[in-house]
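Why run this: before we spend reagent on co-expression, it is cheaper to look at a predicted model of the complex and decide which construct boundaries make sense. The entries below are exactly what would go into the expression plan.
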Amino acid sequence: MSALAHVPTSAGKPAPPPVRRGRSRLLPYLLLLPGAVWLLVFFAVPLVQLASASLYDPAGSLSTGYAMTWAFGNYPDALQAYWPQFSRSFLYSAIALVLALLMGYPLAYAIAQKAGRWKNLLLVAVVAPMFTSFLVRTLAWKTILSDNGALVGLLRDVHLLGPDGRLLATPIAVVLGLTYNFLPFLVLPLYASLERLDPRLLEAASDLYASPLRAFAKVTLPLSMPGLIAGTLLFFIPATGDYINAELLGTPNEYMIGNVIDSAFLVRLDYPQGAALSFLLMAAILAIVFVYLRRAGTEEVL
Amino acid sequence: MKGQQTPAGDLRLVDLTKRFGVFTAVDDLTLTIPQGSFFALLGASGCGKTTTLRMIAGLEQPTSGQVLLGEQDIAGLRPYKRPVNTVFQSYALFPHLDIHENVAFGLRRRGIRKVSDQVEQMLALVQLEGYGRRRPAQLSGGQQQRVALARALINHPQVLLLDEPLGALDLKLRRQMQIELKRIQTEVGITFVHVTHDQEEAMTMADTVAVMNAGRIEQLGAPADIYEYPATAFVANFLGQSNLLAAEAGGRAADDVLVTAHGSRFSVPAGRARLTDGPAFLGVRPEKLHLVDDPDRVPAGHQHVGGVVSDASYVGVSTQYLVRTAWGSELTAFAANSGLGGQLAVGTAVTAHWDPRHAFLLPRAAGEDDQTAPLLDEPPVGASA
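The model came back. Tokens follow.
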């Protein structure tokens, strides 16, 4: 009886598949290869080149050629010359991030949890603007914010703007442009996080004496942290380096560090300075991201 | 704490109705659940039992009616204002919090600062000491279930609602948790309202069982009372199974009700008859139906019908027989494998007999034919009793 009972157990176990060690050990590396080559050629090599350019003799020029003099002084010089644009970049994108969060979080929440059968349509609506060029969209904002436009007219009528007040060519226009252009990068990861949120957890919170506000703070918000962190980074990093919005919607008074780098490389042809500014921006963003991830507590992120 | 300040009272549902569009999920339900009792709402899925529970919890607004806790109508209160806690079917543990914080959640929301001692006590009650720093995903289903229980119980609710809390567990663990739950309920003395579709679970744990069907309560009472004397054909076949023969009740004779079924005359004690005249079901539980191959061995006073064994399933503790009667219905009979009688082979002509004191008489809609349940996969309650 007991011997019989054991038969199906051993017979039911499938034989272990034959192991082909050589191939299975190589496979992950083969899969990595295309991406690694791509990164090496188009990221690592240019990065090294840019790093060395940032240390060229600033006295050189494109026509006379640059000499490698390990000119570390390029960094403090660039920072001293352009710190207003530097700090403006972070200020504008921080304000834009706050505005985008105020709009984007409720939007992502509504699409993920409340939209029902409209969910896909609303998602397309969030992404649809990206089907047209970034430039075209920013130019469209130029029309919306123009002095003769309906928006400025309305704001003047309700006296939120003076009779000569304007939106275009002001910091407001640049911040609005940044907010608009990078909003989808915030909304999509947030949506992905909130979509996975089990509404039964909110019922449980409410059953356990949490008011809707407390339930949001203690359940919804922490569970959406992965999306929130990803979204804010995807928003903040490109917004800080952006130069199109300041170029098209602002004036040189609103120029951000991207505009300076742009002109250093393409107008003034000051490669060492452009490269030094690029590295400063990268270092500043890396530092902010590092502190942010530490503070946001990846411990809480599942 | 809320639950200790205010003396808890009976939970009363008065004319409670819930409609979703044209569908009536709960239909004019009136029910009193005494304080401190273990009450089970038993019914098939879609019968309205979970909706009833959610209305008590406040997660669903009743279309009309009252939910009274003691003297207070709590039907209008938001869920987080009710002294009622729920153990959810899916447990709904917070995945981002560890076990300690999951259990402490309710206390913290009510502004209680020192929670550690209570949490430890509660984890001890559900036998999960030392698990406080783990995440829900690191626990097994049974452990998660106990965390969900601790998380609700720590608040000392006046009523604890359990929504099929054992549904996701395997059979062995479910048995264990049934005994566990019953022990804890006795220990804490809180009113438990337990929703389940598992009749065995309801009978094992509850003091009082309400059998629900189509938004209404078909019968309410102690498990043994309902089982021994069901009120309707639905109850007779939902709680255990029954052989129901289409019959006509023909009035009383002394302490008996006379019954005619399929051309034979039977009788049922008046105390076990829900009606005395008109279309009726004559019911006998399968374990009360005995089979003999020799008609002379039918004990005196027993009533009987003849038939042929059409199927015999050996399930260990008992053998389940199907007996095909002369008019074509198949009666079910369970014979305990006590070693006293032999097995009957398929095709044997037998006489099925029962003590009339074990039969019952239920109302039947005119035109309804015999209701004899097919063999179940699981041995029903009666078989192991």
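Residues 171-188 of chain B form the longest helix (18 residues). Residues 232 and 316 of chain B are 31 Å apart (CA to CA). Bring this page to Monday's planning discussion.
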